Amino acid sequence: MEQQQDLLKDIISHSKEYGFIFPSSEIYDGLAATYDYGQLGVELKNNIKTYWWKAMVQMHTNIVGIDSSIFMHPTIWKASGHVDAFNDPLIDNKDSKKRYRADVLIEEHIEKIKVKIEKEVDKGKLKFGEAFNEVEFRQTNPNVLRNATKITDIESRFKETLSNDDLEGVRQLIIDLEIACPISGTKNWTDVRQFNLMFSTEMGSVAGEASTIYLRPETAQGIFVNFLNVQKSGRMKIPFGIAQIGKAFRNEIVARQFIFRMREFEQMEMQFFVEPGEEIAWYNNWKIAREKWHKALNLGDANYRFHDHVKLAHYANAACDIEFNFPMGFKELEGIHSRTDFDLKQHETFSGKKLQYFDTNTNKSYVPYVVETSLGLDRMFLSILSASYKNETLEDGSSRIVLTIPPALAPYKVAILPLLKKDGLPEKSREIMKELQFDFSIQYDEKDSIGKRYRRQDAIGTPYAITIDHQSLEDNTVTIRDRDTMEQERVDLSTIRNFLLEKTGWNSLLLNQ
Description:
By secondary structure, the chain is of the alpha+beta class. Helices cover about 40% and strands about 25% of the residues. The chain has 18 helices and 23 strands.
């Protein structure tokens, strides 16, 4: 775990040094849990958005996109349940004066037990070698079974206390599990209290209501209130989806772990409207589709796992998370939820307007059910950095920092590097750049030795580097270097464009989705 925490520190440092992420308002000593994306960060972030949008909207004829307002009528948040129920259970340690989310403390305790199970399995693999039967081992090993039972008992008790809104029961569970404050090391806990996460602000008169409005805590409600607008104007037939990428805001009291949990963040959400009774089948379909989308990036299949929710939200009849193995351990990356017809019915009730779909085949109207996929863009960004950051020792004993970012997502697809700053090499290099920059993001670099320039490109994740030398002037060939293998190949300039399209284009990620 300590090694993993060191990885997070390295990523934070690397992100600032190379222009991926900066602390916000840094010259004024910063603002807690807010970050600015730098010149490389914004490129990677935009590429992640493009990958999601292409897979979610462009590749589906029955899914369209919208961009709804951050400010919305305050009654929307009453209807959605956010005014009354959008709370986190918080607990303070009396000695360190630090505040924690009670549910996170319990989840982290469960994760430690899971780590013990995996260590036991690893021991078994070493002991039995090729004869090792992992399934049988997990079903029979006393230590594994004992820890698995612990997890089941904790989750059962945790679910019961949450379902009953039993905050004292949640505190007692923390005490019984002997969970200590990571700072003070003591178990001197306060009572658990609920804290609403919405940011409120003021606007002039809002349709006769009070002037208090909210920054949206999620993007989903903008989709729900536009359900009929999109359906009618787009002549959409069920099943169909509405996708949106946008900012959301939550007044997180315990905001930490770099960009994993921030007060201002970005979501990529899709609400899929289906006929009542078909929602669970679609829920399972979207679980498979979203897992494929993630694993197409080749960040390591073992870095992903599904986690079913211990307590379902008030609107859901099925819910799970795709978790990723961040430097802090397995944490939620994307949520997939069957939201039933809760949202549309609530908005019908509070607005007095019908939000129903008329089925021309049956001549009947009904309120559709909804399956949601909700992905945190900032968390997706962190997952890519976490899996891509490598400190490698090379054969000659030297080392390099390299970001093995999937080529289609890399901030720059190719670097153009004249071997020398003379003899017409810079001019030839800029000619090549002009020909390629309509299709690819390119960095031009002529400072320092070629070796140092290669290392700079490795550190920012550029998958290919083209070096122009004196031979290039004679026969129109260049050297192209692969970031991951560091192998170099002499190729004709006429082949470069198609090569880069094949290696860095979207087809490689989207073909099997």
